[in-house]
Amino acid sequence: TDMSMTGFAYTQTTNRLWRKNRQPRRNTTCIGTDNNRNWNYQWYFEPAEGSVSPDPCSESFKGRCPGDTPENVAVSALSRKLAEGPHGIRSYIDWHSYSQLILTPWGWSCDAADLPATLPRMREVGQGTAAAIKASSGRNYTVDGLGGLVRLARLGDVPLHLDGVVPRHLARGRGFLAPLLALLTGASENAANEAG
Prior knowledge:
Elements: H1 5-13, H2 70-84, E1 91-96, E2 101-104, H3 119-137, E3 142-145, H4 146-149, H5 157-160, E4 166-171, H6 180-195
Parallel strand pairs: 1-4, 2-3
Antiparallel strand pairs: 2-4
Organism: Verticillium longisporum (Verticillium dahliae var. longisporum)
Cofactor: Zn(2+)
């Protein structure tokens, strides 16, 4: 719900763990699409059972077609505009509150032939990030490929932002409902990493 204002508002008033936007869909009474699974990249890939669903009533509903949510349309357009600008996109971080992981692409494949050419640099940056976090807070973060640590899933925001970019998936906290102190600690750890 990080990109969806309506989804975020719903998490504050009704269902704290709601993960979809609140966009009504035609021909169903079910509401919303999981923006993480709606990106226009590897949308047709069928990952592990349960991680993506074509069922509009599922919390992991991928949408009717690739990139069809208003949020993904807007973020994709902004990303393209920034990428074409004079400075491009140099780094991309996808924040999650669950676990202490720094993950590199891909979520849809662990096959070496599919991995990005910039993966060695991504791992290097990930190790540097983990070292900076360890130095600032003493917490250990694991650096690995997204597909190697979690069930294969389509997290299309990573490739969308990946043209010569060093993406980092930083997952923090103690589950999906991280306490405020864990969020503040995560912000402090990231500030130490960015400063280093």
